[in-house]
Design a protein that fits this description.
Elements: E1 4-8, H1 15-24, E2 28-33, E3 52-56, H2 62-69, E4 72-77, H3 84-89, H4 91-111, E5 116-122, H5 147-161, E6 168-174, E7 176-178, H6 189-198, E8 203-206, E9 211-216, H7 217-229, H8 232-235, E10 238-242, E11 248-250, H9 251-261, E12 267-270, H10 284-290, H11 298-311
Parallel strand pairs: 1-2, 1-4, 2-3, 4-5, 5-6, 6-10, 7-9, 8-12
Antiparallel strand pairs: 9-11
Helix pairs in contact: 1-7, 2-4, 4-5, 6-9, 6-11, 9-11
The protein binds nicotinamide-adenine-dinucleotide.
């Protein structure tokens, strides 16, 4: 029987779509997740499938890791305290999950004979670029400006240092993700702006000139499968930015996209110092080496999220379960 593919954090916003994509590609998928954001229904539809298994537990818990790693050939490591606000609210927890949890998982995965590990990192690692007219490639200096990105930079180094002998590891630095997922997140820029405009709120935007790349959640999930299935010599010990070079935007551009769809929207631009991230990213490497191209644009994502918010399917889109 084919070994399991373990997805840590598989009940999350990105994870629940990664699980979809892996099952579709014929993987047997096991999820390890602590359900940090409450009992989300994101994986209910998998219940009863023979090729799906779920371990409710913490990635820092040795027993949970042992149960999750039984008969596993590959690991997708997504479990984390995700985002700047969540990490600054609980800095010790963020370091503990994002760095120590990753370290312990790497130890155990090596011991368990796992062959491939894909780690979810972030383009936030580029922080505030000295010259944002440049496109950051994977070799660019990392200048994290938040604890979240600091923990991801540290974890990346750990992940890459373990790519030897049996285990082959790689890091995917996702652009900021958007789009609909069974575990919806409205604390991500495109989703948040779209929800607010849909609900007839005045949009309050800071740092409107700052650049950031964006990627649809289904495209991000597809990149994980590509990295996992690529010949190991293409990915072992490598970092890939995941997104599309043509999808680098300023927040101002997102406002203009939204205005195309909802022309009566109101927007106020304000000055705040809290999030100085400003980076434009090159996605040539993932395209050239893994053949990855995004299939959806920010405008597609806006349409998708408008439809989702208006469908009524989410209940209260402001509910705590929809943010980290
Ligand atoms: N969403 C984005 O824009 C984005 C961008 C770049 C990188 N990423 C990375 O992608 C990954 C997934 O992000 P997401 O947006 O799906 O976030 P998410 O918060 O929706 O998912 C994280 C999942 O990890 C689980 N988790 C948290 N701590 C855990 C622990 N100690 N043990 C086991 N499970 C735990 C949570 O319950 C949750 O289901 C993260 O590693 C994140 O850093 C996300």
């Amino acid at each position: 029987m084919r070994p399991w593919t373990l997805v840590t954090g598989g009940a999350g916003y990105v994870g629940s779509i990664v699980v979809d994509e892996l099952l579709e590609r014929g993987h047997r998928v096991r999820v390890l997740d602590s359900l940090l954001h409450g009992p989300v229904p994101s994986l209910l539809r998998m219940w009863g499938r023979e090729d799906f298994d779920f371990v409710h537990g913490d990635v820092r818990d040795a027993d949970a890791r042992r149960a999750a790693l039984r008969d596993v050939g590959a690991v997708v490591h997504l479990a984390a305290i995700v985002g700047d606000p969540a990490c600054s609210r609980e800095p010790d927890e963020a370091r503990s999950v994002n760095q120590e949890g990753t370290h312990e998982l790497l130890d155990d995965a090596t011991d368990a004979g796992v062959q491939r590990l894909v780690f979810a990192s972030t383009c936030s690692n580029y922080g505030k670029m000295a010259d944002s007219s440049m496109l950051a490639t994977e070799e660019f200096e990392l200048r994290p400006v938040s604890l979240y990105a600091e923990t991801k930079v540290a974890a990346e180094l750990d992940v890459l240092s373990r790519s030897y002998n049996g285990l082959k590891t790689c890091c995917l630095r996702f652009a900021t993700v958007y789009g609909a997922s069974p575990r919806m997140r409205f604390d991500l820029t495109v989703n948040e702006f779209t929800r607010d405009v849909c609900l007839d709120r005045d949009l309050v935007v800071s740092g409107e000139q700052f650049w950031r790349p964006y990627v649809h959640v289904r495209d991000a999930a597809r990149s994980v499968v590509l990295a996992l299935e690529a010949p190991s010599e293409l990915v072992a010990g490598e970092v890939f930015n995941v997104g599309m070079t043509s999808e680098n935007y300023r927040k101002l551009d997102l406002v203009e996209f939204l205005r195309e769809r909802i022309p009566q929207m109101q927007v106020e631009f304000v000055h705040r110092d809290e999030d100085p991230r400003d980076y434009k990213v090159s996605f040539d490497k993932v395209n050239q080496r893994l053949g990855f191209g995004a299939q959806r644009s920010v405008l597609d994502g806006i349409d998708e999220v408008i439809g989702l918010v208006r469908s009524g399917m989410l209940g209260d889109p402001d509910a705590d379960v929809y943010r980290n």
